Amino acid sequence: MSKLPPLAAIRAFEAAARLQNFSRAAEELGLTQAAVSYQIRQLETRLGRSLFVREKGRVRLSETGQRLLPAISGAFTAMGDAFAALTSDDAEVLTISAAITFGGTWLSARIGRFQLRYPDLAVRLLMSNDLVDFDAANVDVAIRTGAGRWPGLRADFLFRSHVTPICSPAFRDTNGIERPADLLHVERLAPNDPWWAGWFAAAGIGTPPPRRQGIELDSQLQEAIAAQGGFGIALMTPLFWRPELDSGRLVRPFETLYQPGMANFLVHPENRVGVRKIERFREWLHEEMAMDRQLVPEPLWEPLA
């Protein structure tokens, strides 16, 4: 047998205690004052304690009532939040958080197709390199880079992180770039990024490049602008820059790719599995990724071990 008193009695108590008035509680609940009084007396009988002190036509909470009210009010608030969350899950806005580079290149170029497929859903794209806090931010899904293990989140593998040197054709030709070792002597954007050492090692140059002064930028979006202007060569993800590479505005002098042991994932809280707008975006994202499989080597589509 449940130890919880009837919900109707609990609801009557919460309203009367919060409003400090049986008549107003009855109006809020759509009951008569007599019905509210009856429910509260039933609750008091069950508890064997008075919840209100009745005096001169007025009521005030007893010590027992004062102890109960915060917990009861908190429980009703939590239930209200739960039902509101269900309503929110069906809301017509999908909020996506993505890193500046991924969001500003690959995703921005394709998100219109998602909108056309699901015209009933509006899309809000937030771009930041900071990890989104799902508990504090009004975000449905995020594209996150890492090892794929985040407690409380479902992580769907998308593709492995990878970079290669990319520059303008004029920069390549002016600097006579023909071999990987030539990059040790030209202007490299973010020259002290440890990924440069990783790329040189992958290209067969085991000696780490010496530290040097250079241009440090926040994202590949900024590096692409600098590279197209001829100001240096940058480590960039070719998957994000297919239009520029195909048109010749940018070139990749070497086929060597560096994989830093990380991958890109679609993540969202585990307790939101099955939410329509999230599941539709997840399915669409995997379909779009499948269309790009031929653009990069097959191992980059294999999940991390």
UniProtKB/TrEMBL annotation:
Q: What are the protein's UniProt keywords?
A: DNA-binding, Transcription, Transcription regulation
Boundaries of every HTH lysR-type domain copy: 5-62
GO BP terms: namely: DNA-templated transcription
Q: Does the keyword Cell inner membrane apply?
A: no
Task: List the PROSITE patterns hit by this protein, alphabetically.
Answer: HTH_LYSR
Q: Which InterPro entries does the record cross-reference, listed alphabetically? A: LysR-type_TF_proteobact-type, LysR_HTH_N, LysR_subst-bd, WH-like_DNA-bd_sf, WH_DNA-bd_sf
Q: Does the keyword Transmembrane apply?
A: no
- Please indicate which superkingdom the organism of origin belongs to: Bacteria
Q: Which GO terms describe its molecular function?
A: DNA-binding transcription factor activity; sequence-specific DNA binding
Quote the Gene3D superfamilies the UniProt record gives: Periplasmic binding protein-like II, Winged helix-like DNA-binding domain superfamily/Winged helix DNA-binding domain
Could you say which protein family the record assigns here? Belongs to the LysR transcriptional regulatory family.
Task: Indicate what this protein is called per its UniProt record.
Answer: LysR family transcriptional regulator
